[in-house]
């Protein structure tokens, strides 16, 4: 997905920017970048972080950079930040999100502005950040440009923009699918996506931007330039899987939400077992909630070997990724043999990994493997935040099952009703395929309750197929958006 951090200060901002950006490393695996505006103009550096962590790649740059304002990014798409030269002067920009209609926007640029875009990604494609920058430059001002981008993008695009006079802007995507959060320390302000970065850098949480809101940050304050939009649909998967445990979005902490998810699973689908266990990493927090609620022992029959397998080492090929994932996971045989275990995991995508893990457990003498999944079955691939690497909808085990049963034109929606027969048969198929003793998925209402925001403020598309951007702006109950 990717993440970003921007800092503006009355003093040098480089150390805060470096560590603030680094705290987003779990969100992306492709490129890292920083741009700082110093006395001599923009200083910028971009590195490949596929084989080494952000921190080790940037520690030399940090020594030579200086300035009071800067932006940094962990990118899963194109190399960033870009520095653009436009009629507004130059500006540095980073973006995070997924632009579903990027081709359409490129054509608009070519047709209306005769603009020559460069190849800015390693794959020889025009990168999304470049398209966004060029679109911004078509408008009368930078802020009008950001507003225009939000009105045109299908998907999502949150961004930080730093102009050559030192103005720092932060914009959250139109439907607020990704978080953008503000923090303050003395005479410095920070905007980022993972609020866990604030505490160790001495920043206090200020607030989350509203959906589509654009602010200018000064060292003392934030000034809203574009008011929040009418409806928020923040990604519910942040809490289930990819958000960092110490972070909070919209005031809801990730780790505590995962405990509540596990607890809800234990209440709704209890089982007799000798211990509750998690599939690392995020499954561990769900399992702690399960164990606590069920009054069951918690155990770690799987541990992850991380010293030489940095999160950022993530091969592009699915087969290689699966190989790396299975090499990282180690078992503790004494916690497995002759035991009945209930496992929590965040989700099932292809099912390949879980099937292998179940086989490993049985080969080590596990008697029963009960699997509890912290979210409902994934039935619709994400279209909004560049979350999935799936090339096809049929990467999802659910969709392969549905296609096998009804062909390509099946009514998929009926497989999302947990009380319906099609759903129950699909879950039974997955259970059998992965050779699990029992399998149960979280109900959507339990997940929503665990997060603690109204359902209408959450994106739940990958489980329900419900896209709020097609529903209009009526009735958002969160009290945050301006209905
Ligand atoms: S479709 Fe799923 S992963 Fe994508 S933004 Fe919505 S909830 Fe998040």
**Mean pLDDT over the full residue set:** 92
As for the CATH topology of the largest domain, it is Glutamine Phosphoribosylpyrophosphate, subunit 1, domain 1
- Can you tell me the residue ranges where pLDDT is under 50 for at least 5 consecutive residues? none
Topology, number of strands: 23
Helix content: 25-40%
Bound molecules: iron/sulfur cluster
Number of domains: 2
Could you tell me how far the N terminus lies from the C terminus, measured between alpha carbons in angstroms? 29 Å
CATH class of the largest domain equals: Alpha Beta
Classification by helices and strands: alpha+beta
Spatial strand sequence of the major β-sheet: 3-2-4-1-10-9-11
Features:
single chain, 483 residues, alpha+beta, Glutamine Phosphoribosylpyrophosphate, subunit 1, domain 1, Rossmann fold, seven-stranded antiparallel sheet, six-stranded antiparallel sheet, binds iron/sulfur cluster
Report on the architecture of this protein.
With 483 residues, the protein is α+β, with helices and mostly antiparallel strands. The chain has two domains: 227 residues, Aminohydrolase, N-terminal nucleophile (Ntn) domain (Glutamine Phosphoribosylpyrophosphate, subunit 1, domain 1, 4-Layer Sandwich); 219 residues, Rossmann fold. Helix content is 31%, strand content 24%. The strands form six sheets. Strands 3-2-4-1-10-9-11 form a seven-stranded antiparallel beta sheet. A six-stranded antiparallel beta sheet has the order 5-6-7-8-12-13, with helices on one face. A four-stranded parallel beta sheet has the order 17-20-21-22. The mean pLDDT is 92. Bound molecules: iron/sulfur cluster (SF4). Iron/sulfur cluster binds next to helix 15.
């Amino acid at each position: 997905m990717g993440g970003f951090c921007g800092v503006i200060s009355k003093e040098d901002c480089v150390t805060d920017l470096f560590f603030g950006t680094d705290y987003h490393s779990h969100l992306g695996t492709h490129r890292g970048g920083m741009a700082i505006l110093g006395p001599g103009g923009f200083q910028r550096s971009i590195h490949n972080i596929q084989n080494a962590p952000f921190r080790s790649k940037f520690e030399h740059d940090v020594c030579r950079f200086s300035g009071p304002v800067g932006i940094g990014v962990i990118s899963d798409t194109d190399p960033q930040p870009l520095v653009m030269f436009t009629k507004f002067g130059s500006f540095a920009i980073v973006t995070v999100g997924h632009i579903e209609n990027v081709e359409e926007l490129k054509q608009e640029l070519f047709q209306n502005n005769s603009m020559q875009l460069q190849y800015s990604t390693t794959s020889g494609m025009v990168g999304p950040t470049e398209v966004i920058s060029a679109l911004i430059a078509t408008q009368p001002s930078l802020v009008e440009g950001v507003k225009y981008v939000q009105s045109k993008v299908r998907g999502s695009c949150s961004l930080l923009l730093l102009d050559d006079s030192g103005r720092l802007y932060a914009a959250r995507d139109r439907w607020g699918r990704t978080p953008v959060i503000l923090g303050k320390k003395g005479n410095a302000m920070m905007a980022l996506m993972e609020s866990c970065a604030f505490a160790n850098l001495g920043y206090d949480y200020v607030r989350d931007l509203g959906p589509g809101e654009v602010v200018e940050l000064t060292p003392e304050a934030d000034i809203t330039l574009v008011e929040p939009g009418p409806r928020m649909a923040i990604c519910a998967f942040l809490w289930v899987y990819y958000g960092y445990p110490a972070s909070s979005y919209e005031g809801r902490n990730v780790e505590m939400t995962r405990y509540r998810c596990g607890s809800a699973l234990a209440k709704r689908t209890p089982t007799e077992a000798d211990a509750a266990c998690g599939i690392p990493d995020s499954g561990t927090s769900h399992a702690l909630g399960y164990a606590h609620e069920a009054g069951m022992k918690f155990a770690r029959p799987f541990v992850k070997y991380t010293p030489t397998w940095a999160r950022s080492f993530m091969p592009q090929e699915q087969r290689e990724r699966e190989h790396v994932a299975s090499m990282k996971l180690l078992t503790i045989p004494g916690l497995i043999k002759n035991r009945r275990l209930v496992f929590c995991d965040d989700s099932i995508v292809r099912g390949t990994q879980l099937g292998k893990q179940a086989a490993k457990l049985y080969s080590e003498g596990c008697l029963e493997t009960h699997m509890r999944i912290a979210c409902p079955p994934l039935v619709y691939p994400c279209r909004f935040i560049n979350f999935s690497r799936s090339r096809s909808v049929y990467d999802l085990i659910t969709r392969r099952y549905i296609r096998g049963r009804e062909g390509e034109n099946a009514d998929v929606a009926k497989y999302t009703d947990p009380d319906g027969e099609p759903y129950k048969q699909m879950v039974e198929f997955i259970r059998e395929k992965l050779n699990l003793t029992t399998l149960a998925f979280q109900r959507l209402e339990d997940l929503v309750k665990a997060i603690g925001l109204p359902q209408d403020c959450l994106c739940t598309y990958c489980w329900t197929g419900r896209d709020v951007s097609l529903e209009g702006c009526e009735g958002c109950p969160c009290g945050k958006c301006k209905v």
